[in-house]
Amino acid sequence: MLHGIIKTGCFMADLQRRNAIKCLAALFGAAITPVAATQLFDKTDDNHFEVLKAAAHRDVVTQMQAVILELEPNDQLYFNLVAFTDLMLANTLTLTERTACVKGAELIAEGVLSSSQLANKLTSLFTISSQQQQRIIAQQALPFSEVSPDKRDEYLIYKCIFTVREFLLLGYFTSEKLQAS
After folding, report:
1. By C-alpha distance, which of 145, 160, 68 is closest to 107?
2. I want to staple 93 with a disulfide (CB 3.0 to 4.6 A). Which of 2, 97, 137, 155 is the partner?
């Protein structure tokens, strides 16, 4: 089955590599064995992270996981979502997109001394008015070069939030699907 999925993915020659991976990632959740998924995504050694190399970057993703998924501390996921997010960042984004995401994570973590402060900061970034939300979404549609200099930090912060949120949700639901198998 996995061979058929990969073969189908190869025929998507018109898609760029990152788009093909994004399209196939959901299919892999159903086709990959739980053991292989655990080995592939469970990076326990900090030296193996490709994009989220700094502890501050991993802390932002960890706190986003807590804020977005509202998991209890004792909830056990099938694999490490921070490592999964790192894997997706490394293999599905361009260098420019990865750089913007990491810079956004640095801006989010800037000035934060504890994980509870980081969680509060992230929560405040998520609790915005619908008018602000529409403005931010419109801003995200622009290339970085067209964003006004005074709005660039906000652009990078929300670029990070939107990107990491997508990968956290994909990883969470893939994990749930594997756990149910």
Report:
1. 160
2. 97
Q: What angle do CA 157, 59, 132 make, to 5 degrees?
A: 25
Q: Which burial class, exposed, middle or buried, applies to 119 when counting CB atoms under 10 A from its CB (0-12, 13-18, 19+)?
A: middle
pLDDT at 120 over 70: yes
Distance, CA of 87 to CA of 106 (rounded, Å): 19
Is residue 104 within 8 A of residue 159, CB to CB? The reply is yes
How far lies 175's CA from each of 76, 139, 154, in Å? 10, 32, 31
Q: Identity (one letter) of the amino acid at 55?
A: A
Whether residue 12 is predicted with pLDDT greater than 90 in this model: the reply is no
At 7, the pLDDT band (50, 70, 90 cuts) reads very low
- Could you tell me the CA-to-CA distances from 53 to 43, 83, 90 in Å, in that order? 12, 11, 11
Reading the block at residue 83, the tokens are 């490592």
Residue type, 93: L
Tokens of 125: 């970034």
146 pLDDT higher than 70: yes
Write out the two tokens for 63.
């706190």
pLDDT recorded at residue 3? 44
